[in-house]
Amino acid sequence: MRLLLAGTVAAWLLSAQADRPVPRADRNSRLAHEQLLAKAKQGRIDVYFEGDSITRRWGATDYPQLLENWKKNFFGWNAADFGWGADRIENILWRLDNGELDGVDPKAIVLLAGTNNVGNQVPAAGADSVVEDVTKGLQAVVRVMQSKAPDAAIVLMGIFPRNDNMDVMPEIDRINANLAHLADGRRIRYLNINDRLADGDGRLREGVMNANDKLHPTVRGYQLWADALKPLLTELLGPPSKEDRAPAPTGDPSAGR
Questions:
Q1: Separation of alpha carbons 256 and 177, rounded Å
Q2: Is residue 12 over pLDDT 50?
Q3: Is 93 domain-assigned?
Q4: Which of 7, 20, 85, 130 would staple 53 via disulfide (CB 3.0–4.6 Å)?
Q5: pLDDT attached to residue 122
Q6: What SS3 string covers the chain?
Q7: What's the domain count of the chain?
């Protein structure tokens, strides 16, 4: 029965289309959505971060060392983190379609997503379809963001390198090349920091990613991301203020149960 269920889930993942919104069914994700809906109505948000666990961990209360780095880099820019762990692009689309950006009106949006759609294994004959699907999905996310926050400049991040399976790196590189073509240099800015995270062969530099999963950044990795973002944010928003009015950071709802 367990093998049958695993096969069903795998088949669903392969058939899912990244440009069509899909909700997460687990209770913790539903609670997180409610939490983020409330967060969107609190404080002032000038910089809106969106993505999966790579984005989420940076500004989350359950990763205090990373949160300290977040505050050090973004205090005064009214930045808020709306990432959620294990989200695929279609899940992010659903969250955006269901209120998490409504009425926020940020000046800048930072989007890093797609690694969960690539996964750590590329189907033998499906690499082209993965590249096309992820590209279309991220295009759809950008369109929704533009419709809900028309005055925001979107910083579209290239998908970070992952070394849990080096075979996926050519697909990540191809997706990132597609994303670069979406940028217009004004309302959509493309930012790829992979040359700071990995060498020319895509192999991670020492100490920038979690040694266990080779996917999530360490404090050093997040600082490299911040160093690349801050000149852009300064251009878009001006220097950070001495006070910050962003909503309080949130965390994993399951941690409180």
A1: 41
A2: no
A3: yes
A4: 85
A5: 61
A6: CHHHHHHHHHHHHHHCCCCCCCCCCCHHHHHHHHHHHHHHCCCCCCEEEEECHHHHHHCCCCCHHHHHHHHHHHCCCCEEECCCCCCCHHHHHHHHHHHHCCCCCCCEEEEECCHHHHCCCCCCCCHHHHHHHHHHHHHHHHHHHHHHCCCCEEEEECCCCCCCCHHHHHHHHHHHHHHHCCCCCCCEEEECCHHHHECCCCCECCCCECCCCCCCECHHHHHHHHHHHHHHHHHHHCCCCCCCCCCCCCCCHHHHC
A7: 1
pLDDT tens track for 113-158: 999 999 887 655 568 999 999 999 999 999 999 999 999 999 999 9
Classify residue 247: in a domain, yes or no.
no
The residue length of the chain stands at: 257
Residue keyed to tokens 């999963």: 213
**CATH code at position 226:** 3.40.50.1110
Q: How many C-beta atoms surround the C-beta of residue 158 within 10 A?
A: 20
Return the structure tokens found at 130.
């993965």
Is 123 within a domain? yes
Token pair 């990763």 is at which residue?
63
Per residue in 22-50, pLDDT tens? 999 999 999 999 999 999 999 999 999 99
Choose between 256 and 30: higher pLDDT. Answer: 30
219-254 tens-digit pLDDT = 999 999 999 999 999 999 999 999 999 999 999 999
Q: C-alpha 19: how far from its chain's center? A: 15
- Model pTM? 0.93
> Which CA distances in Å does 150 have to 45, 146, 192, 208, 236?
15, 5, 23, 34, 14
The domain containing residue 85 runs over which residues? 36-237
